[in-house]
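Key result, reporting period 2: structure in, sequence out.
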């Protein structure tokens, strides 16, 4: 993960959290209170924060959905509690447990919405892959290539000691973004059959390979040529982006 990627993924939730603090630090403007407006504003503000946190965790840290949801709820609730506490020091403001409850509801709604979106996207991608596979003729099935599944024993012979360039997907079964990348990797295996090696490494089964290549976030996509790593991408990538890099190496 490059410094630029880290900044791109984490800047939005950090900036938004700063805006929340600024908003709750300002004295209340004089005027009539609208019933429920304060609670709705809290719910929306923390809903947006929850969505940004989930996105950053899934794309940058590549956490599984349950872990990302737990971290988002925990970190968001702690931030909301500290936000409420500091309001007791601001003239014209005070701590309100109902505001804190609205913050937590906003986080929960954001987690649920993100979970449903990611789950539906993964299901649609997998379903599309299955539908496509069902329409393939028997002749096409005989020539369709699949991504190689590698481990410590065959990694060198299949990737390092071959003349062709290679794309290796470091993944794990529990990783939601990895599952999203699966159909794309399999598609590339067919498109580049005979031109490039397309392979996968389960980091749970081959931790020594993950450690050797400094894999800290998954999916991690490493490009090899001449036995050396020449490029690396982390997180969910488009098929076109991967094709472009492979074409440059073939």
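The corresponding designed sequence is given below.
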């Amino acid at each position: 993960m490059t410094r630029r990627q880290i900044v791109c993924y984490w800047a939005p939730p950090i900036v938004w959290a700063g805006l929340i603090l600024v908003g709750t630090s300002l004295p209340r403007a004089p005027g009539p209170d609208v019933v429920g407006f304060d609670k709705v504003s809290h719910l929306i503000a923390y809903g947006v924060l929850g969505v940004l946190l989930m996105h950053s965790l899934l794309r940058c840290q590549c956490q599984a959905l349950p872990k990302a949801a737990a971290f988002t709820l925990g970190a968001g609730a702690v931030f909301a509690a500290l936000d409420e506490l500091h309001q007791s020091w601001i003239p014209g403001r005070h701590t309100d447990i109902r505001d804190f409850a609205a913050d937590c509801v906003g986080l929960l709604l954001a987690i649920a919405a993100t979970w449903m979106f990611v789950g539906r996207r993964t299901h649609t991608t997998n379903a599309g892959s299955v539908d496509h596979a069902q329409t393939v003729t028997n002749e096409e099935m005989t020539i369709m290539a699949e991504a190689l599944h590698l481990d410590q024993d065959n990694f060198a012979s299949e990737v390092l000691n071959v003349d062709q360039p290679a794309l290796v997907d470091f993944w794990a079964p529990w990783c939601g973004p990895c599952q999203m990348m699966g159909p794309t990797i399999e598609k590339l295996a067919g498109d580049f059959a005979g031109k490039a090696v397309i392979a996968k490494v389960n980091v749970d089964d081959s931790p020594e390979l993950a450690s050797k290549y400094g894999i800290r976030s998954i999916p991690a996509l490493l490009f090899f040529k001449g036995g050396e790593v020449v490029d690396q991408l982390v997180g969910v990538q488009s098929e076109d982006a991967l094709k472009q890099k492979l074409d440059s190496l073939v």
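Strands lie at 148-150, 166-171, 197-202, 220-225, 228-234. The chain has a mean pLDDT of 82. This case is discussed further under Risks and Mitigation.
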